[in-house]
Design goal:
The complex is a heterodimer of chains A (139) and B (44). Chain A has one domain. Helix content of chain A is 38%, strand content 14%. Chain A has seven helices and four strands, in the order αβαβααααββα. In chain A, the strands form two sheets. Chain A has a two-stranded parallel sheet. Chain A has a two-stranded antiparallel sheet with strand order 3-4. In chain A, β3 and β4 form a beta hairpin. Chain B is mainly β. The N and C termini of chain B lie far apart (27 Å). Chain B has a two-stranded antiparallel ribbon. Chain B is globular. Classes of the chains: A alpha+beta (139), B mainly beta (44). At the A-B interface, β1, α2, α3, α6 and β3 of A face β3 of B.
Chain lengths: 139, 44
């Protein structure tokens, strides 16, 4: 997301990444990826539950689907692959599924995505398309 | 926060501690402009 961050900002979209750890863990992790200011900590995973995000099974992690394998490769190429160190963090749940939401000013959810596997999060270009679809005035 | 979020409904609230130690609200993101929020899985 860091490469596309300015494009979202240019369109007037506030961008944030909720992560599972404490403020210190989030700052460390996100600082490593150059997106410290975007990361919001949710160590109790309250917002994950509120969003209805599920958890993967061990089988799904060990025997990745072709789509998950492709997403893992893309993440690795972008320098964002998951590492064992991260999985060991106190608040880190490796089975947690990701999600995303586009929210209108005032707080109404315009678009919602609940990941079906651990790599099921739209790519930045796909997210930009979604933003264009829902908020054409921001294009 | 017991009601599950749906399209057309309110976005989830989250009170979090910033890296500066301040208590902040997720809803401040979309107070005046649209927001795209990603929920990442684990630290890596």
């Amino acid at each position: 997301m860091r490469e596309k961050r300015s494009e979202f900002e240019r369109r007037g979209i506030a961008l944030a990444c909720v992560v599972q750890g404490t403020a210190e863990e989030a700052a460390r992790f996100c600082g490593r990826h150059g997106v410290e200011s975007l990361c919001l900590p949710d160590p109790q995973k309250e917002s994950y539950r509120a969003l209805g995000l599920g958890r993967a099974s061990l089988r799904e992690l060990l025997f990745a689907s072709p789509h998950l394998k492709r997403r893992r490769a893309e993440a690795k190429q972008a320098g964002c692959s998951n590492k064992l160190e991260g999985a060991r963090q106190k608040h880190s749940d490796i089975f947690q599924l990701p999600g995303a939401a586009l929210v209108a000013p005032g707080g109404t959810v315009l678009w919602l995505h609940r990941g079906k596997h651990t790599g099921d999060l739209p790519l930045p270009d796909e997210l930009l398309e979604i933003v264009r679809g829902f908020l054409p005035a921001s294009v | 926060m017991t009601q599950e979020v749906t399209v057309g409904g309110p976005a989830p609230e989250l009170v979090y501690t910033s890296s500066a130690g301040e208590q902040k609200r997720l809803s401040s993101l979309w107070a005046t402009r649209p927001a795209l929020v990603l929920w990442l899985r684990h630290f890596g």
